[in-house]
């Protein structure tokens, strides 16, 4: 009872903005509270943390919240307050862990908690990316990635002119594989943008005919990865089998492993995706997409491991 009275007086001082006086009252409540009253003690420590936060004594806030959580590990107020202080001090990983714990104990029912968790997660990934890039030696992308980028840039900037030129190139030389495949890609993009299912199927069939027409790199590599891009939603197994066949025939092309890794990840096969991304990096250390996807997977696994703990 006496401890509760000190706490209540402390709360009055807190509401009046007299935080030092509030802390004095919370100190007295903590001092005389029976040690077996774990929940009461946790509240007193958390209240003192709130007063210390107003005074910007962040190390004391962290210490009091930690003590409160030792007494009551499900104390959401203490978790959120400590997360806030940890974020201010730059320890985003620890802040994220506290926020995830708060969401779990609240059954993921509070949208504000969830939004803050997402924000911290995003900032943590960004922070780690900056830290890694600061010490990263600049290297050019792989030769094949550059070729694909240039081709895609052309399509994006001047689609009509590019389509006409590629079709003209195919008319002049029906064996000009990359030009033919670019027309396949443009046909699919046009059909997909206009949500024309019939034309989508026509474009996919045209691309499938290319497998019989162009059997060697780089055409077959571009054909396989393009097929995965345009058809994976309709027939995952067929597309994956196509990529496996290409890998078996041309195992030295990192880009195919990278494409298969993306496909496996999208369809929930995380272990296979990791295997493909690692193989792509082994073949070509410039596979930046593989690095980025591995980072995403690692973050998801970290969040899942924290959830499992609770």
UniProtKB/TrEMBL annotation:
An example of a GO molecular function for this protein is: mitochondrion targeting sequence binding
Give the signal peptide range.
none
User: Where is this chain primarily localised?
Assistant: mitochondrion
UniProt topology in membrane = Single-pass membrane protein
Q: Name one GO cellular component term.
A: mitochondrial outer membrane
Compartments annotated for it: namely: Mitochondrion outer membrane
Q: Which GO terms describe its biological process?
A: protein import into mitochondrial matrix; protein insertion into mitochondrial inner membrane
> InterPro entries, per this entry?
TPR-like_helical_dom_sf, TPR_rpt
Which Pfam family, any one of them, does this sequence belong to? TPR_1
Lineage top rank: taxon: Eukaryota
Q: Which UniProt keywords apply?
A: Membrane, Mitochondrion, Mitochondrion outer membrane, Receptor, Repeat, TPR repeat, Transmembrane, Transmembrane helix
TPR repeat residue numbers: 3-36, 254-287
What protein family is recorded? Answer: Belongs to the Tom70 family.
Name the PANTHER family on file: MITOCHONDRIAL IMPORT RECEPTOR SUBUNIT TOM70
Protein's UniProt name: Mitochondrial import receptor subunit TOM70
Question: What is the originating organism of this protein?
Answer: Mycetomoellerius zeteki
């Amino acid at each position: 009872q006496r401890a509760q009275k000190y706490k209540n007086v402390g709360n009055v001082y807190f509401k009046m903005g007299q935080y030092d006086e509030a802390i004095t009252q919370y100190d007295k409540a903590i001092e005389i509270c029976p040690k077996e009253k774990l929940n009461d003690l946790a509240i007193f420590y958390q209240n003192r943390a709130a007063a210390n936060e107003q005074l910007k004594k962040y190390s004391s806030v962290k210490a009091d919240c930690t003590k409160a959580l030792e007494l009551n590990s499900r104390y959401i107020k203490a978790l959120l307050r400590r997360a806030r202080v940890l974020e201010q001090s730059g320890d985003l990983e620890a802040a994220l862990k506290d926020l995830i714990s708060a969401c779990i104990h609240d059954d993921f029912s509070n949208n504000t908690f969830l939004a803050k968790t997402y924000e911290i997660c995003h900032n943590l990934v960004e922070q780690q990316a900056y830290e890694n890039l600061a010490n990263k030696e600049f290297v050019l992308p792989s030769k094949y990635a550059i070729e694909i980028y240039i081709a895609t840039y052309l399509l994006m900037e001047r689609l009509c002119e590019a389509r006409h030129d590629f079709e003209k190139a195919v008319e002049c030389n029906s064996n000009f594989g990359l030009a033919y495949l670019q027309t396949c890609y443009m046909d699919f993009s046009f059909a997909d943008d206009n949500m024309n299912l019939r034309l989508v199927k026509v474009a996919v069939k045209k691309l499938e005919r290319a497998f019989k027409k162009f059997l060697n790199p780089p055409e077959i590599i571009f054909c396989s990865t393009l097929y995965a891009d345009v058809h994976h939603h309709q027939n995952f197994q067929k597309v994956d089998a196509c990529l496996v066949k290409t890998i078996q025939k041309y195992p030295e092309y990192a880009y195919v492993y990278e494409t298969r890794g993306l496909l496996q990840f999208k369809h929930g096969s995380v272990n296979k995706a990791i295997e493909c991304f690692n193989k792509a990096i082994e073949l070509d250390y410039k596979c930046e997409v593989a690095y980025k996807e591995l980072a995403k997977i690692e973050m998801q696994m970290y969040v899942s491991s924290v959830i499992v703990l609770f």
